[in-house]
Amino acid sequence: MIFLTVIARLADGLPLAASIQEDEQLGRDLQHYQSQAKQLLRKLDAQSPDRCMLEAGNVNFCYFISQGVCCLCLCDASFPKKMAFGYLEDLHNEFCEQYGKRVPTVTRPYSFIEFDTYIQKTKKSYIDSRARRNLSSVSTELQDVQRIMVANIEEVLQRGEALSALDTKASNLRSQAEKYRSDARFLNTRSTYAKVAAVVLVFVTVIIYVRFWWL
Amino acid sequence: MSTAGFNSQNGTGTGQTYTNGPSQNPVALQQPSGVGYSVNHQPAYNQMQAKVLAPPGPALYPSGPYQPVPPGPQVGSYPPAPAQPLLPRPQIGILPSHTPPQSASPSPGPRPAQATPPAQATPPPPAVTSTSYYTGPPAWQYAAPRGPAPNHVNPAAAAPPLMSHSSTQPPGPGAPPTSIHGFTQPGSAPPPMNPLPPHTYQPNRPAYGPPPTMKPTAPPAGPPGTTGTPPPPKADAQCWGAASSARPPAEPDTQEGDVECPGDVAGNGPQAPNSYNHVDNRMAGAAPPGRHLGHYPSLPPGYQNTSAPPPSSLHPALQAATQPYTQGPQPYQQQPGGPGPGPGPGAGPAQLSPSMAAMSLQSSTPEALRVVNLLQERNLLPPAPVPAPTPCLTQDLQKLNCSPEVFRCTLTSIPQTQSVLNKAKLPLGLLLHPFKDLSQLPVVTSSTIVRCRSCRTYINPFVSFLDQRRWKCNLCYRVNDVPEEFMYNPVSRSYGEPHKRPEVQNATIEFIAPSEYMLRPPQPAVYLFVLDVSHNAVETGYLSVFCQSLLDNISALPGDSRTKVGFITFDSTIHFYNLQEGLSQPQMLIVSDIEDIFLPTPDSLLVNLNECKELVQDLLKSLPNLFEKTMETQSALGSALQAAFKLLSPTGGRMSVFQTQLPNLGVGALQSREDPNQRASAKDVQHLSPATDFYKKLALDCSGQQVAVDLFLLSAQYCDLATLGCISRYSAGSVYYYPSYHHQHNPAQVERFQRDLKRYLTRKIGFEAVMRIRCTKGLSIHTFHGNFFVRSTDLLSLPNVNPDAGFAVQMSIEENLDDMQVVSFQAALLYTSSKGERRIRVHTMCLPVVSSLSDVFAGADVQAITGLLACMAVDRSVTSSLSDARDAMTNAAIDSLSSYRQSALTIQQPGLLAPACLRLFPLYILALLKQKAFRTGTSTRLDERVFAMYQLKYQPLAFAMLMIHPALYRLDDLSDEGALNIGEQTIPQPRVLQLSVEKLSREGAFLLDAGLVMYLWIGRNCHQNFLSQVLGVSSYAAVPEKLYLLPELDTAESQRTRAFVSWLRDQRPFFPSLHIIRDESQLKPHFLQNMIEDRTESALSYYEFLLHLQQQISK
Fold this sequence. Notes:
The complex is a heterodimer. Chain A is built from 5 helices and 6 strands, in the order ββαβββαααβα. By secondary structure, chain A is α+β, with helices and mostly antiparallel strands. In chain A, α1 (about 30-45) packs across α5 and α2 (about 80-100) packs across α4 (about 130-140). The termini of chain A are far apart. Chain B is of the alpha+beta class. In chain B, β31 (about 980) and β32 (about 985) form a beta hairpin. Chain B starts with 5 loop residues before the first strand and ends with a helix. Chains A and B meet through β2 and α1 of A and loops of B.
């Protein structure tokens, strides 16, 4: 079962087209997965592996990146991996054929939302178990399906978070160090003043002593 | 550099038939690159203002006897007091209530101001914290009456004598103050008085009551509020921009919580009895107005001006017109024909004198405050439609301000404190028409939308720039940073001019929302039609009209390639239609288990319109014949709605329900509650509230899934619209009602249905919308009127929004607005267009703040006040009773006029005095009392009454006003003088006449335009010319009994008349049917019911009503 399909621009994660399948079992969690998908699309960049499957509980995110376009879908954990990637590749080809040239220029989110119609049709043919047999020939062409990287969604999403945590810590450290530095300087000055004051006091005492007792 | 194209684009959708006046050429230059801008610099709102106001010259206003001729023999004899209990005085919601809130739930949390007297210097309530958004109680509970705000009875703080307007001007940069109060031109005078009364004049001055004595003036005892405490820093996070504004598809849990909340069943909507429930019984004793009425027979016809010297010469027209209309068939002297020439010769000085007398001590009074003695001035109606008053702002602010057609406030000068507002006794509120079709609408595409960080206000023309890098919010006064990309101005393609950006130059603007504003991808346009096919429905023959209309307009349905349609029909069973691609013909699936409804197949009930267009067309062609022979009389509407809801809930969309009888099977079955014999005689109207909450609950479920339900009710019998209407009311749908619809017997209704359907199917539509109205800190919005569901304290959930929906809100002043010169209001509507774009339409309005009571009166907008009072009265009649609502409306007029007399007037005169801007107020209140929604004594069907109430709340102000106070024109002598030229056409502009039989003449033909219906009344001695040239008949007797359209004759008169009628029709989104009636026609009583200024068996005439008001005021 495929619950959610998003096609986005890789450069900035701008969603270009999407399709949602309402599902009673998933129900409310879909919102949660949707926001995860959004975060994920923002995280992905040219350095990310171009095919990856991310586990998120009993569902999997699968994505496929090519030509600056990222196709992402959320499917059941039981959904066959090669079917999922076959589906994504199918979508990607059709999408790039129809809209590929316009992808870098658009600014509005979901500019190609009309692609939804195609997504739904394709999805139907992949989900339908009777039609699957017809597709088996297609999916066998994906030889390197076994080499697809599998990771956990939390790790991917938190990789950035860890970095940012480190960043915050570092900047905290930096600000603390600066504070220490200024505190230290302040203390230094104060002790210097104290010393000078002591010397001055002694000196004055001496003068007074000399003035009143000596003379 | 992410700022992209800024296109000025035509706001109306394609295929709109409804445009307001001349639309400019839409300029839609798409720049190919990212940075583009083009705007059409024409002003956005310039429709329909081409009429020139003419001073009501004496020649145009023959001041006839004020003696409406009642139909019947009682000419001249006034029976004493009519059977109209006028006097118990509940307060209409101007004064805050003494009584505790009646809401069924404990007072909701996030309103700290609940019981805070404004005198306390409380910090403003944390307007919106992100936590209170969805945990807050649902709004209809929340709309509990305002806390017991102090009923400050300040010792009549006489306003400082005549604050000249310029003193309240905000210190604008060198702009001269404007006072463009434009009802009548300053030089224009009241109509000439009748110096030679044909009847004896008895000095009946004592009947007016003793002149009220001036109270000793005391310094304005304003509450010693020391405000100015800065608002507590708000947990701003992502108030509703990023998170909540994209809410519609989200939050199923909170919505369910709302549904199950206690009190929603009884509470009848968000408009709980807000501030109505103060029943002040000081006059409960039903004082008989007979003492005053006894003087009627002796009243001279025509009002005597006691102070004016008799003019030296009398206009001959006047002399003739002083003869009562019934005395003989003398030629009718009125000269309609639009703004005619100025005052007649010889009448100039004489007619000026009465108003000069009133103004002698107030020479600096602005026009809006000119004192008008309503008992003496008869011809109050301006010759053209009443324009909206202009707020007293500096010119450059005024130039930027929002159009009054979109955004209107009842008081164009906001009082500084609640106590001033209480003293003025005028309701404070806004009337909105947020999704109006606009011919000019700037659209901005930008990756970041600049908003205030604490209150999430969109940047607007009324913010102030501290320097190039910072701007100060005009609602919460927080200083915000200007983002880098906002520094670039796409208009001038220059850098460093943030104040020249289109966002800061337009009060109405639309943004293309970035993806943070959506939680799910934009939904496709989905239309589901739910059709009644029971025997009764087939009898009416609506099905073929519907199918034909849809066939004609199927390609004009707003949408893109994703658009989906579906059909459900029902009688005692539910029929679904499988329209899957590839089928050779539509497949009907019947579900007879209506108790536990299910969908027979998961998909292909809603199909893509583009791919299955032929199947859909097949179905539409065969549908009328399919049920021709049906004998099934039962109707399982409830189950059909449940099925439709199941079908639509995954996507959301629009459900159009066509119903022809009372649902009587399965869930949601209803019983007839109306007793036709009681219609006229019953003291109070029962059954205005819903009989069951099934429809309301279902509507709330729909609202949660972004489904709106539009109800078309075509029925001759009682259908319980009060209950069925809930399905549309809470799901932001619209209600259409066609009483006695029949395809053969009632062709006028058929035509109306056809035209309405065309507009309905092709008009612009917004899906999954939310609207939020913000106002400057210190003001707070507490009650909403219209069709929607209030999801959190101020967020209106609108599953669909259409261009014909109006809204109203009530406001109160929580904190003193001491140090402010202006306040602002902003309405932001976030919606998904039918093309799948998420857009935000933002309207901002700015109004001045004044401290003196007379300035508040000067800024009163009488039409807006009437519209808001009508909404409040509808609520009142549902929650309390109709008679309460009627009393409250009367009291609103009494209170405001008496407070004007006591506090704002510096010289006391006898008579019923009103400021010029409120001079139509008593007339409008009387019109409301005689409106279908509120009238008593005449036989009114319950459904028609309820429908009238729905219309008052739902229609935008301009159309609601027509329904309240129809317009009367004389049509037999149209001329091109002062005509309007639109394109090729010349549209004559006859003047608006007073609604009195006295204005009719047997020689003429008169058009009465009452919004949803028009009557063309042909006088018995109508000019032969008109009959033959316009109606195409040889004589009066040859006018057919039932005539619904003007024949297309090739004569100048016919063209003029048709141009005028169709121009009137084109201005409104619904289609008024035209009835051409003769003097003895069956419809004549309907026509005469609209003669508001005349007495009927059960209601007062305008003059009697004025006397009643005066009596109450001088008490």
